[in-house]
């Protein structure tokens, strides 16, 4: 019996690596500290009522962003471990198998569990405020989306200490990801972690399309909508067409592994190429899904901090929509070297190049928004200005990669690695940071320390170029991705060492950001944003108090232009004391609001249990999880007590406490 | 004055990067081609870089200029037009210029795609040499069907002669890449991909597996040597005379997951490469050979199973 337990435990838990034991201990201690702290301060009830069961889009957004930061930490530690291993030739800091797991989890976490939730967080906190809505179209679904993401992320991260991490790369190409070569549970964690959170992503896509199309404030026609919601719309269109492909593809891979099907196996008529096509049909739109909202954020910021209208609004809209559509027509450029033939390669090279056109147009429009503006350099704007050269040069290398015959020399080399980090960090991460710094006061009601923020910015930027510019050179020297070590005679060590130093600087930059947030929280009373409009903003979110009240708008705004809040401020200035608001003309009325619900978090917990059962082939877990899911759905179907009205008095006193609607 | 200042700032920012890049060009295999395919690919890289720079360099300069000139400060003389938001002419220019450049690049790319299609034979008076390449976990097997010999992790080719590589995998998919000779081609089970390359001059190069295949994937480098035809013929004779034969049993062992030194074989089982390809491509039945394969996951490669080869190691 004891022997049985022992052998089970050694299979079940990841053993043998001091790094992992260290992580086990720190995870355990953190958990104990959190539980003890929550109990000591009697915060469990508060946590459950205010956060875990909330359907408020702003709180859900904050939880998304918090999770994204945790995942940024995890993915960043993965990155630093890899860079340490590669700093010098022939190091054996990490074993090959461990290294393979780390580059896999780094990729999956950064794209699916960092960029995606960060993006959804920003969608959540800002889209309703920018379009003058009181919540998203489907608040319950929104909460469910978040908790599905969270359950998926936790399931995926669990593989680190239980069972073993996946090691087949972030897109898990078969046949390597099939049972034949990869019999461990890591790959199943991968499938179920992504599958569960992917369903959440799809629902978020639907939710925001409906929100944007149906819930805009009176007078806000589509072409009067701020650029960020436009970017969200283009991104969500790509989500609803691409995520079902991901779900289907992973389901087929799961059937191969679980039920002995032969969709992508080498034997039994399976075809791995099918998987590679399918996964990129999702995977390529995915990178545009995450970068388009960043474009929207930059558009908002560049206009605000240049104190000037966004240049070429229509061009910007068309450009994003064109990118959204074209993103579905380029997937085969990820495997020009798999022998598709000249016709196919030529077609996909051309569609890929086409994307450079609308993207280039956007850059020019940002530049000409700044042209004849009055530029100030607060942190959101710094990130935006830092983004432009970074993205332009990253775009250049992207065009080089799209030249199919030359790509045969770039493919799978560090040149490619440098390129996609260039556009994903320079575009997506810089964009989300810019957005977070920009909207932080609106979210939390206080401003962050600009000085620490600037330190973080410069560390990030210098670290970034030091890390990735040498990787272009390494690619041209023939270094391929995913190698765990390299020999002295290749002459790669100088560039690798510089690259590692750059990565370390980015690690320090992250610490600056953590410090900045901690500092901000500590000094929040002194830096409170009492105006609701700390940056002299242009759009609706700045017209309400900071932090936004739970019902967002006491009365719904009347919109007549793209920069409605800025126009309103102009009108008030010109009109003097007699000026009347044209933005808020309505009377206070009871506000219809959704009620909190515990069902989303319970459903996600059930998904987690079922997913865990699928990973370990524990039928009872699967049955328990799925039955729980069914019970939750039934319970919710028969629940008619889902909404309530906020009485006028409550709105009036809430607004009065912020100095508004006092008359 | 202001412009030059901005330019200087930009130059100061970019200088370290440029220096870094300049410092190591001698080591850049891809930019130091030794064969016609790699040379044409290098030229394409340079042409497309120049074309892109026509847009990118002005944009970078313009960014620096605009950010500098239109920064908000006291006593600023630059214009401020908060409501200026549209100019058909300007927007036409920046929709137009990228379109023109992409059009030019598209023509070059399409031409290049057809010209450099990897399965297209190279124009040459010489008859191409065929080498059958099999990616194994974690080593490369090269078979020379015309010479009847085989090698592991070592590729010898005559200079100035086109080489027709037929590439497959008896392992997860890999990618066969010799940077100084030309672009890579995937090695996939159940398929024989064709790639033509040629070394113009004698020399020692290296190749690698460019697509991840598991634990010891990083050990899949191989040496490439191009020699004169006479030296090549002599080497072939030597291998035929001195090296052991690769038997079917020997191949089975070789295909087991392990890392491997350089090996040479005086012969190989007839039709080995074709069988390797077809055993995966055979459709809807479970190939018995496949079932025998050990999963690649095993953390310790099995050196024991290779004791038989130790005597055969080429030195």
Features:
heterodimer; A: 663 residues; mainly alpha; Cytochrome C Oxidase, Chain A; two-stranded antiparallel sheet; 2 strands; globular; B: 315 residues; Immunoglobulin-like; five-stranded mixed beta sheet; disordered C terminus; transmembrane (chain B); copper ion binding (chain B); palmitate (chain B); oxidoreductase (chain B); electron transport (chain B)
In terms of quaternary structure, the protein is heterodimer
CATH class of the largest domain in chain B: Mainly Beta
Largest sheet of chain A: 2 strands, antiparallel
Q: How many separate domains make up the residues of chain A?
A: 1
User: Roughly how many Å apart are the termini of chain B?
Assistant: 67 Å
Number of strands of chain B: 11
Please, what is the average pLDDT of chain A? 94
Q: Write out the strand line-up for the largest beta sheet of chain B, numbering strands in chain order.
A: 8-5-1-2-3-11
Low-confidence stretches of chain A: none
CATH architecture of the largest domain in chain B: Sandwich
Give the overall average pLDDT of chain B.
86
What sort of overall outline of chain B do the alpha carbons produce when their principal axes are compared? elongated
From the N-terminal CA to the C-terminal CA of chain A, the straight-line distance is 77 Å
Structural class of chain A: mainly alpha
CA-atom Rg of chain B in angstroms: 27 Å
The pair of chains with the biggest contact is: A-B, 101 and 102 residues
CATH fourth-tier homologous superfamily of chain A: Cytochrome c oxidase-like, subunit I domain
Function (chain B): Catalyzes quinol oxidation with the concomitant reduction of oxygen to water. Subunit II transfers the electrons from a quinol to the binuclear center of the catalytic subunit I.
Organism (chain B): Paenibacillus radicis
Protein name (chain B): Quinol oxidase subunit 2
GO biological process, one term (chain B): ATP synthesis coupled electron transport
């Amino acid at each position: 019996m004891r022997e049985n337990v022992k052998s089970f435990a050694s299979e079940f838990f990841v053993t043998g690596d001091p790094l992992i034991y260290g992580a086990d201990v720190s995870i355990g201690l953190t958990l104990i500290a959190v539980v003890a702290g929550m109990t000591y301060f009697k915060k469990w009830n508060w946590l459950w009522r205010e956060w875990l069961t909330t359907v408020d889009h702003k709180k859900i957004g904050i939880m998304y962003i918090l999770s994204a930061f945790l995942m940024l930490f995890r993915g960043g530690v993965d990155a630093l471990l890899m860079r340490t291993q590669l700093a010098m030739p022939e190091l054996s800091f990490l074993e090959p198998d461990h290294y393979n797991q780390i580059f896999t989890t780094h990729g999956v976490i950064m794209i699916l569990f960092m960029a995606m939730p960060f993006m959804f967080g920003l969608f959540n906190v800002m889209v309703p405020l920018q379009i003058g809505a009181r919540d998203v179209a489907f608040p319950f679904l929104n909460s469910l989306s978040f908790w599905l993401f969270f359950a998926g992320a936790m399931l995926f991260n669990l593989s680190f200490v239980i069972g073993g991490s996946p090691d087949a790369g972030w897109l898990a190409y078969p046949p390597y990801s099939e049972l034949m070569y990869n019999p461990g549970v890591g790959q199943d964690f991968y499938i179920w972690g992504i599958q569960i959170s992917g369903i959440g992503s799809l629902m978020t896509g639907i939710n925001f399309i409906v929100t944007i199309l149906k819930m805009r404030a009176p007078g806000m026609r589509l072409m009067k909508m701020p650029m960020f919601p436009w970017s969200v719309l283009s991104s969500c269109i790509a989500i609803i067409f691409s995520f079902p492909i991901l779900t289907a593809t992973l389901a087929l891979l799961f059937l191969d592994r679980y039920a002995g099907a032969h969709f992508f196996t080498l034997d039994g008529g399976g075809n791995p190429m099918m998987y590679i096509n399918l996964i990129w049909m999702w995977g390529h739109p995915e990178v545009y899904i995450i970068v388009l909202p960043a474009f929207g954020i930059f558009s908002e910021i560049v206009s605000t901090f240049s104190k000037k209208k966004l240049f070429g609004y229509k061009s910007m809209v068309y450009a994003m929509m064109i990118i959204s559509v074209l993103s579905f027509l380029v997937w085969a450029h990820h495997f020009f070297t798999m022998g598709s033939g000249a016709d196919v390669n030529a077609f996909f090279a051309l569609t890929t190049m086409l994307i450079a056109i609308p993207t280039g147009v956007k850059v020019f429009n940002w530049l000409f928004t700044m042209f004849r503006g009055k530029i100030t350099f607060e942190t959101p704007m710094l990130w935006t200005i830092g983004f432009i050269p970074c993205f332009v040069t990253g775009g250049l290398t992207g065009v080089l990669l799209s030249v199919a015959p030359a790509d045969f020399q770039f493919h799978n080399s560090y040149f490619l690695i440098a390129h996609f980090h260039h556009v994903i960090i320079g575009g997506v991460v810089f964009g989300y940071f810019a957005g977070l710094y920009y909207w932080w006061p609106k979210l939390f009601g206080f401003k962050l320390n600009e000085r620490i923020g600037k330190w973080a910015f410069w560390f990030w930027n210098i670290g970034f170029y030091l890390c990735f510019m040498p990787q272009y050179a390494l690619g041209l020297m023939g270094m391929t991705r995913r190698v765990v070590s390299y020999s002295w005679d290749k002459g790669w060590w100088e560039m690798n060492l510089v690259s590692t130093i750059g990565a370390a600087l980015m690690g320090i930059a992250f610490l600056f950001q953590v410090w900045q947030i901690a500092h901000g929280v500590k000094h929040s009373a002194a830096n409170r944003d009492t105006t609701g409009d700390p940056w002299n903003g242009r759009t609706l979110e700045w017209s309400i108090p900071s932090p936004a009240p739970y019902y967002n708008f006491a009365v719904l705004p009347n919109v007549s232009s793209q920069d409605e809040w800025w126009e309103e401020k102009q009108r008030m200035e010109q009109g003097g004391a007699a000026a009347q608001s044209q933005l808020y003309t309505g009377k206070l009325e009871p506000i219809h609001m959704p009620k909190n619900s515990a069902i989303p978090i319970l459903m996600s917990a059930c998904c987690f249990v079922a997913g865990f059962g699928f990973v370990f082939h524990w039928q009872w877990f699967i049955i328990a999880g799925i039955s729980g899911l069914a019970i939750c759905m039934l319970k919710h179907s028969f629940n008619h007590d889902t909404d309530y009205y906020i009485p006028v008095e409550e709105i009036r006193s809430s607004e009065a406490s912020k100095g508004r609607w006092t008359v | 004055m202001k412009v030059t200042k901005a330019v200087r700032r930009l130059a100061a920012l970019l200088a370290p990067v440029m220096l870094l890049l300049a410092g190591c060009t001698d080591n850049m295999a891809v930019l130091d081609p030794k064969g016609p395919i790699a040379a044409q690919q290098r030229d394409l890289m340079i042409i497309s870089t120049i074309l892109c720079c026509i847009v990118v360099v002005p944009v970078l300069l313009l960014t620096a200029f605009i950010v500098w000139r239109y920064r908000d400060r006291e006593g600023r003389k630059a214009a401020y037009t908060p409501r200026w938001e549209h100019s058909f002419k300007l927007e036409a220019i920046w929709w137009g210029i990228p379109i023109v450049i992409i059009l030019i690049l598209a023509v070059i790319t399409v031409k290049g795609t057809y010209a450099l299609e990897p399965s297209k034979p190279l124009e040459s008076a010489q008859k191409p040499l065929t080498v059958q390449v099999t990616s194994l976990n974690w080593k490369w097997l090269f078979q020379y069907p015309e010479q009847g010999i085989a090698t592991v992790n070592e590729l010898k080719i005559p200079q100035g002669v086109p080489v027709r590589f037929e590439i497959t995998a008896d392992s997860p998919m890999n990618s066969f890449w010799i940077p100084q000779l030309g672009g890579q081609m995937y090695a996939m089970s159940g398929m024989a991909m064709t790639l033509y390359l040629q070394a113009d001059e004698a020399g020692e190069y290296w190749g690698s597996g460019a697509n991840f295949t598991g634990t010891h994937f990083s050990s899949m480098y191989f040496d490439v040597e191009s020699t004169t035809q006479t030296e090549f013929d002599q080497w072939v004779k030597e291998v035929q005379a001195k090296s052991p034969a690769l038997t079917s049993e020997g191949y089975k062992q070789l295909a087991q997951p392990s890392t491997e030194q350089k090996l040479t074989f005086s012969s190989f089982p007839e039709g080995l490469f074709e069988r390797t390809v077809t055993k995966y491509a055979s459709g809807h039945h479970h190939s018995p050979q496949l079932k025998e394969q050990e999963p690649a996951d095993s953390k310790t490669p099995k050196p024991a199973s290779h004791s038989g080869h130790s005597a055969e190691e080429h030195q």
